[in-house]
Amino acid sequence: MTEKSRIMRYFDTIRDLYNKHIRNKREEPRFLMLTSFILFFILARVSAYSANGILPLPFFHNIYIQQVHVHHLVIGIFLLLVAGFIRIPQFGSTLSRLSSILFGAGAALTLDEFALWLHLDPNRYFGSQGYISLDVVFVFLLLLLTSMLHGTFWRKLLVTTIQYFTFGGRKDGGFFRLFFILCALALILSIGLILWSKTHTQIKSKEAYLSPVSNVAAQKNRETINITPTATPSATPSATPTQIPAGFCLYVPVLMYHHVQPFADAILHGQQSLSVDPAFFDSQMSYLATHGYTSITPDQLVNALKNHTQVPPKSVVITLDDGYLDVFTYAMPILQKYHLNAALMIPTGLLGGQGNNAYFTWGQLKQMMSSGIISVTDHTWSHFPMGSGTTQKDQFEIMTAKEQLEQNLGIHMDVFTYPYGTGAQNPRVTSLLQQDGFLGAFSTIPGTIQCDSYIMALHRTRIGNTSLSTYGL
Which terminus of the chain, N or C, has fewer Cβ atoms within 10 Å? Predict the structure, then answer.
């Protein structure tokens, strides 16, 4: 018997088993729903484990709505809508089979993302250490359920498969042959994606740090400078052209946060676009701590650029803008947990204010600074958009905040942060800052390369509710 005839006999036997134990018992819709649910749920979890969803296939790309990661939910709902439109017109039809498969796959992808809508970490479900166990238990229960409902079919399928690899088969199995081949290919693809993601992550970690480059080296090797692209959630400010590295440059990502609060609170106050959930913030800080990053202060970065000196390998600056109370409540304990330095961009006239935006007090700021991991920068007095008024107004905003920070905290203030990012490329504003003794300033221009040629408009990366690996870290 030829190999081709063996394969045909094998799939012919599967078809007979399927007809006898599934189709003839009118179990086909439930069988296809349950089988596709299990398959796609496993694939969804594999994508979550594989470098936090960074996969080389378009189907697995991230989708964000107001910084909320929803890509499996979007795909799942779409498939459910398609299945609902098709419906299940009758038993045994091709449309019935297709609708059943789409419904099972869509339900799996939707439930995979459901934890996010409960304001949990979607990759961890009910605990940072327990999500793998919960997934295994859930898949096991599904397998137990399908064995109870369709156990005879699966048992005979296993026996037939064993016999095929030892004895032989008969005629083409048509639809069923394709269905089971796809299941086998999906399993192989899942294993391949895991292996690829591990290799990809290792390569990225080796290339993550760029050594400082001098002006001459930058000019000679501009083509070889690999500027890591920045992932930007939907709430990113209006695009500003990224400046071309020139002069003495360092690869130092500056991470930009605003609110750190439960996403339920962010929705209540209409602050989704500027909020990171504490669970995500904890995961992001853990990522920095466990991947060898060193959190440096704005002063350290500015002085390194000014003096053309190096910073520790894999340096990063963590910034939290505007002085919101939730930074004191949620972000500070997490920063202390991982012993990470962070900079607070302070609009001094807003401290202690209440309302939809609540701000921490001077006392709470001093308490945070006493920890030794918090530094501050001038962020104006009233969070005024620099360059939008008179020179006198700009000067009042800059110097009032500078004097209040120095008097209340006993520090010397020479680093500035532009509210809304405005004024960063306004010569009048930058000249005024330099006259007032400021050595450097932070913008909202996206990028991870910092150069002394634009030390008054250093780049920052807006961070959302996702893994830091999404931003090239």
Answer: N
d(C-alpha 389, C-alpha 437), whole Å = 21
- Of 20, 38, 37, nearest to 156 by C-alpha is 20
Per-residue pLDDT at 189 exceeds 50: yes
Structure tokens, 317: 């600056």
In 10 A of CB 369, how many CB atoms? 16
Alpha helices by DSSP H, listed for 113-130, are 114-117
3-class DSSP state of 355 = coil
For 35, residues 6+ apart whose C-beta sits below 8 A from its C-beta are 104, 146, 183
Question: Using 50, 70 and 90 to split pLDDT, how confident is the model at 165?
Answer: low
> Amino acid letter at 461?
T
**Which pLDDT band holds residue 395 (cuts at 50, 70, 90)?**
very high
Q: Is 306 helix (H, G, I), strand (E, B) or coil?
A: helix
Write phi, then psi, for 56 (nearest 5 degrees).
-80, 5
Structure tokens at 291: 């991947």
Distance of CA 133 to the CA centre of its chain: 23
Report d(CA 455, CA 7) in Å as an integer: 68
CB neighbour burial string for 109-147, b if at least 16 within 10 angstroms, e if fewer: bbbbbebbeeebbbbbbeeeeebeeebeeeeeebeeebe
Q: Which two three-digit tokens encode residue 338?
A: 């991982």
